[in-house]
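Record pair follows.
FIRST:
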Amino acid sequence: PKFLWPEIMRAVVEIKNKTPTRALPDGRTPYEYWTGRKPNISHFRRLGCAAYGMLTAPQKRGKLTVKARRCQLIGYAKDSKAYKLYDAGRHKVVRTRNVVFNEADV
């Protein structure tokens, strides 16, 4: 949907800033050039891939309550280590750290 484009563009810009470019010497990244530190990219996943986010806290769910919902990865939270997921069933963008990814399913 069109309302997701700003979120996706933020993610693309973050990925571009944390990957090497020919415009900078020695294969450095724009992030490294600006901060002097190497970026951590271990949390990057394939945008648009299937993500099963734990959207209900363990304290709030019962034995038969749904634990996770199928969503799509649309970006990364700026102020925490959370992922931004789009839950198409509820037409909602959610942030969570508890995610299982299936990068083969786009």
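SECOND:
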Amino acid sequence: SEGVPLAAFAARFDAAVSAYQPVLLAGLVVVSGVMFEILFRRHRALTHIVFALHWAAFFFTVEAVRQVLPISLTWHETSGMAATAIEAVYLTIAMRVVYGASWYSAVLKTAVVIVAFSALLMFWLTSAIALALRLL
């Protein structure tokens, strides 16, 4: 609402996002594990959870590195595309190694995982924005 200083809003928003982030991260790993279970049914559940933890760690490491590099609008767009490509190549190879998938299957399933993972992250971002708007 009117009259809320930007610094006060930013502090509330950061606190809300920080409180919500561990739930998101745990949720992403669980949802990813379920997604890998659906994509690779012949493997044990523990394999999917460990693989989901591994994938999430790699994904967030790449994104963290991208975020600490100098940012301009052009760099941000280019680095986003490069990061997605790196993540997709890595995930494809990891699926071949861990699950024994064919190249065709691994590429197809990588596309499914990247789209689903991106949708989950967009859901989190949208919910964080909605929460921030409620704090106004």
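COMMENT: The first helix runs from residue 6 to 39.
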